[in-house]
């Protein structure tokens, strides 16, 4: 929310207290209705906090301060807000009190999803790509083989971070953990996803170069097509923009193949349905066994058993979501989506 003057803020509060509608307040003050609604929620927060038998320690000024801390992304959680209130007002509130204030104002706590770092040029490329594919039907997406690598840990790792947002808010930079891609005890695997089911899965190691990746394509990609009886001349192959994937030797080989290569926007795992299959794989590995694997060999055996147990219907469900994924990127103007 863009900062507005204190005079306008006071005017908004005054008009809201006089029972004016959001539309009338917005028109009179010269701000958007969304802005007015945010201050209406802030006012509601103050009233809710003041309810009860004991006088409230939180003034309207403190309420406004908390609101700005959260909506402007300066603070993410109740503990941070608690410290900020003590520094600004010299008042000590429990973090549970701060959480109660936030909940009554309509904020919800959620786990920050990890999302790739998006620069402005990448945002534009994502938006352009989504627009150019927005009219593809499920029948078009059926032809695509989606591919990717992922790291599977022997011991599951959580690494969750929490934040607060309003239910209607779209994800923005303060709502996500921005990560840089590829940032003991794990296996790096490659596989692919087709309309007919999951592809061959292979341990590619942690130092795979373009020549090693080319061997994966020659062996495991082609075996996947063959095992499902796919007509390679009708296949569209998807891969991301990892340097190994876009190297000269790989590009030359792909150019010689009968299948088509799908141009892919940068930093767009949310557009690739195989990411959901990776999540499914890791979730099953974590929940289906009482204890972690005792060796890397056992981890690899579990990976294979779990991956090949994924049904054709499960694969199709995520490929069918591609039109919605494109629409979500367009709605988000190229930024992060829920996928």
UniProtKB/TrEMBL annotation:
Residues 65-135 form the Transposase Tc1-like domain. One of its GO terms (biological process) is DNA integration. InterPro entries: Homeodomain-like_sf, RNaseH_sf, Tc1-like_DDE_dom, Transpos_IS630-like, Transposase_5, Transposase_Tc1-like. GO terms for molecular function: DNA binding. Gene3D superfamilies: Ribonuclease H-like superfamily/Ribonuclease H (3.30.420.10). Residues 143-287 form the Tc1-like transposase DDE domain. SUPFAM superfamilies: Homeodomain-like. Pfam families: DDE_3, HTH_Tnp_Tc3_2. PANTHER family: TRANSPOSABLE ELEMENT TC1 TRANSPOSASE, TRANSPOSABLE ELEMENT-RELATED. This is Tc1-like transposase DDE domain-containing protein. It comes from Rhizopus delemar (strain RA 99-880 / ATCC MYA-4621 / FGSC 9543 / NRRL 43880) (Mucormycosis agent).
């Amino acid at each position: 929310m863009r900062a507005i003057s204190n005079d306008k803020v006071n005017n908004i509060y005054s008009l809201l207290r006089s029972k004016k509608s959001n539309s009338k307040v917005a028109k009179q003050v010269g701000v958007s209705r969304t802005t007015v609604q945010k201050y209406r929620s802030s006012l509601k927060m103050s009233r809710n906090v003041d309810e009860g038998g004991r006088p409230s320690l939180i003034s309207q000024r403190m309420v406004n301060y908390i609101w700005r801390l959260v909506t402007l992304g300066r603070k993410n959680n109740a503990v941070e807000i608690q410290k900020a209130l003590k520094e600004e007002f010299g008042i000590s509130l429990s973090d549970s009190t701060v959480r109660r204030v936030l909940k009554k104002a309509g904020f919800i706590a959620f786990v920050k999803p990890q999302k790739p770092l998006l620069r402005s040029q990448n945002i534009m490329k994502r938006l352009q790509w989504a627009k150019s594919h927005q009219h593809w039907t499920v029948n078009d997406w059926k032809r695509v083989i989606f591919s990717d690598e992922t790291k599977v840990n022997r011991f599951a790792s959580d690494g969750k971070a929490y934040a607060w947002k309003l239910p209607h808010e779209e994800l923005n930079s303060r709502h996500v953990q921005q990560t840089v891609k590829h940032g003991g005890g794990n296996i790096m695997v490659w596989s692919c996803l087709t309309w007919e089911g999951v592809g061959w899965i292979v341990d590619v190691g942690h130092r795979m170069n373009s020549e090693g990746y080319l061997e994966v394509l020659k062996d495991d990609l082609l075996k996947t097509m063959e095992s499902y009886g796919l007509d390679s001349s009708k296949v569209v192959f998807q891969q991301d923009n990892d340097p190994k994937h876009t190297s000269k030797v790989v590009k030359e080989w792909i150019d010689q193949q009968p299948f088509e290569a799908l141009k892919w926007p940068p930093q767009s795992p949310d557009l690739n349905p195989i990411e959901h299959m990776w999540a499914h794989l890791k979730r099953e590995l974590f929940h289906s066994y009482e204890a972690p694997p005792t060796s890397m060999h056992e981890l690899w055996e579990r990976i294979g058993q779990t991956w090949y147990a994924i049904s054709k219907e499960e694969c199709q469900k995520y490929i069918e979501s591609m039109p919605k994924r494109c629409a979500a990127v367009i709605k988000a103007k190229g930024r992060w989506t829920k996928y």
